[in-house]
Specification:
The radius of gyration is 27 Å and the shape is elongated. It has four helices and nine strands. It is of the alpha+beta class and 231 residues long. It folds into two domains: 98 residues, 2-Layer Sandwich (Translation Initiation Factor IF3), CATH 3.30.110.170; 104 residues, Protein of unknown function (DUF541), domain 2 (Alpha-Beta Plaits, 2-Layer Sandwich), CATH 3.30.70. The strands form two sheets. Strands 2, 3, 4, 5, 6 and 8 form a six-stranded antiparallel sheet that branches. A three-stranded antiparallel sheet has the order 1-9-7. 32% of the residues lie in helices and 37% in strands. A hairpin with a 7-residue loop joins strand 4 and strand 5. This is Oxidative stress defense protein. Keywords: Signal. InterPro entries: 26kDa_periplasmic_antigen (IPR052022), SIMPL/DUF541 (IPR007497).
């Protein structure tokens, strides 16, 4: 049993080593605290794209530019601020036919441009997507649900992570009849947010997009702590 316990402890220490690489030379407990906060989304960001194929590069460019400019004009008309709109540069690529025999033949050009829009009122998301469809946009890359008070929820998640780390350390110390002395090291890495994302949706089948109204966002945090114990 003693041998098995040592091997288990060694495996656990090796697994924890990349997180807190500096290992102290005194008795200690390493804990990782996890916390989360649940938020209801109240805004959104989406990315849409127009893709057109024409016989010439200039025709393809003009076709996508016309759609994008029409969409941008409608967004501004509906009160969307210019700083909440990002439009990409033109992406143009030649298209080829590949006959069974002979060389590839140029068949035309494919052009695309994308637009990213921040919608600060979630109830306006469907209407804004309708504008995209009416303007000639033919692809939705993603819809990302967000929360305006991200920092407040992040702090709640971080507090929960700290309490989780403390509770684990106390429980472990008590379980092994030890006493905690002080915190020797705290390591924190800002986690990436986990927004609700709907990807690769067809512009003409948006009935499913209404599901965001009942969605929630889980905002997570984590903290790694080393506690010193009594010798």
């Amino acid at each position: 049993m003693k041998y098995a316990f040592c091997m288990t402890s060694l495996a656990w220490c090796l697994a924890a080593a990349p997180t807190l690489a500096t290992v102290p030379d005194f008795p200690h407990i390493v804990t990782t605290g996890y916390g989360e906060a649940i938020a209801t989304p109240d805004m959104a960001e989406f990315s849409v794209r127009v893709v057109q194929s024409e016989s010439s590069a200039e025709q393809a460019k003009q076709a996508v530019d016309k759609v994008v400019e029409a969409f941008l004009a409608q967004l501004v008309k509906r009160g969307i601020n210019r700083e909440d709109i990002q439009s990409s540069n033109l992406h143009l690529s030649p298209q080829y036919n590949y006959p069974e025999k002979g060389q590839a033949e140029l068949s035309g050009y494919r052009a695309s441009r994308s637009v990213i829009v921040q919608v600060h009122a979630l109830e306006k998301l469907n209407d804004t997507l309708d504008l995209a469809m009416q303007s000639g946009i033919n692809q939705v890359d993603y819809i990302r649900l967000k929360v305006k008070e991200q920092d407040r929820y992040q702090q709640l998640a971080r507090k929960a992570a700290i309490e989780d780390a403390k509770a684990k350390a106390i429980s472990l110390a008590m379980g092994f009849d030890q006493q905690l002395e002080r915190i020797w090291k705290v390591e924190y890495r800002q986690p990436h947010s986990q927004p609700v994302v709907m990807r690769n949706m067809a512009i003409d089948s948006r009935a499913e997009s209404k599901g965001y109204q009942d969605s929630s966002i889980v905002i997570r945090d984590r903290v790694d702590v080393i506690y010193q114990m009594n010798d």
